[in-house]
Design goal:
- The chain has helices at 12-24, 29-34, 40-52, 117-134, 173-181, 190-201, 259-263, 265-272, 280-288, 292-316, 331-345, 348-351, 365-378, and strands at 8-9, 27-28, 56-61, 71-75, 81-87, 91-98, 103-110, 142-149, 152-154, 159-163, 168-171, 185-189, 209-214, 218-224, 227-228, 320-324, 355-358, 380-381.
- With 383 residues, it is an alpha/beta fold.
- It folds into 3 domains: 8-76, Arc Repressor Mutant, subunit A, CATH 1.10.10.10; 80-193 and 366-381, ATPase, nucleotide binding domain (Nucleotidyltransferase, domain 5); 203-359, ATPase, nucleotide binding domain (Nucleotidyltransferase, domain 5), CATH 3.30.420.40.
- The strands form 5 sheets. The chain has a 5-stranded mixed sheet with strand order 7-6-5-8-12, sandwiched between helices.
- Strand 9 and strand 10 (159-163) form a beta hairpin.
- The protein starts with 7 loop residues before the first strand and ends with a strand.
- It comes from Halanaerobacter jeridensis.
- Keywords: Carbohydrate metabolism, Kinase, Transferase, Xylose metabolism.
């Protein structure tokens, strides 16, 4: 890390104690010692350091069990902040989190010219600058910036390799943000970030899960043995390009009948717009109004989603499949069709051990995942 601020803290024991207070607080020093291998003296010394650096606050006193009343500790949420930037196809979510991983501000800016990446990035910079000014933040208070994109990335180089629905390629996105803010930058695929968000904030005890992000395209984030599975290229999880119908429509990847060409929101718009010129939002309103033609398209989409999920269950045998993205807006119209196909096509031995749910974090799973990544990867402690 090049940025020289209060987050350059490199003591592992200090970090462990801080994160334990973050997870379990308010908690007393005695309870901290009981839950770790550290001595009471070590706990006391490290807590003193954390309080002095303003990372930890003393709060209320507990009930005495014979000696002094214990003083409870909690982390200071205003010690630092982090930005999560979720670049979607038609809009960008810009969310400011505090160190308690709570949302402080959330703004959405439209993408009016998605083919012009320079314009989109410049608008993101303007919005970040506006939030920093509005909150009266010092850049040294910012732990890092997380960026999620709907496409293939080279995480080590910080490059967005290809985002087909944005028509962006070979964009040195981390370099652009680093040059602007000189802060730690994390780049991640949006489905991977969402998988981490659901895992860390909703299903911490689930060790094997797949997050299926269905928007204009389909991407998947895979948590395998409690860790994000990335594969040799770093881009594992492109289940949107499994072929479910060789005679299906041409996909932008060059193949015919890919899952995302038959089960994404783009598929819905294309099917309905053969006879109408409706937006996605208008189509969903038509379904709510009882338009049978639209509902039939949604039912068919649900069945196609179910085929893809069956392949995931048969291949990976996850304990949990989470469906997220814009498609959750019509979950009531597609869930029974999804389950019908999964029950028909998934192997019973794997299906019996799997659960299918819609995202609890809904359209914020990705930004929560980015905040968790920044917190865990960029908060490094020193005395």
């Amino acid at each position: 890390m090049e940025v020289k601020n209060s987050f350059l803290i490199r003591d592992l024991n200090l970090a462990n104690i801080y994160k334990l207070i973050h997870k379990l607080g308010p908690i007393s020093r005695k309870d901290l010692a009981d839950k770790t291998d550290y001595s009471s003296a070590t706990i006391s010394n490290h807590v003193k350091t954390l309080i002095k650096q303003d990372f930890v606050l003393e709060t209320k006193k507990g009930t005495s069990t014979g000696g002094r009343r214990p003083v409870y500790l909690k982390t200071n949420p205003e010690k630092g902040y982090m930005f999560s930037i979720d670049i979607e196809v038609n809009q960008v979510k810009i969310v400011l989190f505090n160190l308690d991983l709570k949302i402080v501000m959330k703004n959405i800016i439209p993408i009016t010219n998605k083919s012009n990446s320079e314009e989109v990035i410049d608008n993101i910079f303007k919005e970040i600058d506006s939030i920093i000014a509005e909150r009266d933040l010092n850049v040294q208070e910012i732990l890092g910036i997380g960026i999620a994109v709907p496409g293939l990335i080279d995480k080590e180089e910080g490059v967005l390799k290809f985002a087909p629905n944005l028509t962006w390629s070979d964009l040195k996105i981390c370099e652009l943000f680093k040059n602007k803010y000189n802060l730690p930058i994390i780049l991640e695929n949006e489905a991977n970030a969402a998988a981490i968000g659901e895992k860390d904030f909703v299903y911490p005890d689930s060790n094997n899960l797949v997050y299926v992000s269905i928007n204009e395209g389909i991407g998947c984030g895979v948590i395998f043995n409690n860790e994000l599975y990335k594969g040799a290229s770093g881009n594992a999880g492109e289940f949107g390009h499994i072929i479910i119908d060789r005679s299906g429509p041409k996909c932008h990847c060059g193949n015919n009948g890919c899952w995302e060409s038959l089960a994404s929101e783009n598929y819905i718009v294309e099917q309905v717009s053969e006879n109408n010129n409706l937006t996605k939002k208008e189509i969903y309103h038509q379904a709510q109004a009882g338009n049978e033609e639209v509902i039939n398209v949604l039912n068919r989409t649900g069945q196609n989603i179910g085929v893809g999920i069956s392949n995931i269950i048969n291949s990976l045998s996850p304990e949990l499949v989470i469906i997220g993205g814009g498609i959750t807006a019509i979950k009531d119209y597609i869930f029974s069709d999804i389950m019908m196909m999964v029950e028909e096509e998934a192997l019973e031995v794997s299906y019996d051990k799997s659960e299918i749910k819609f995202s609890e974090l809904e359209n914020l799973a990705t930004v929560y995942g980015l905040a968790s990544l920044i917190f865990n990867e960029k908060l490094v402690f020193s005395k």
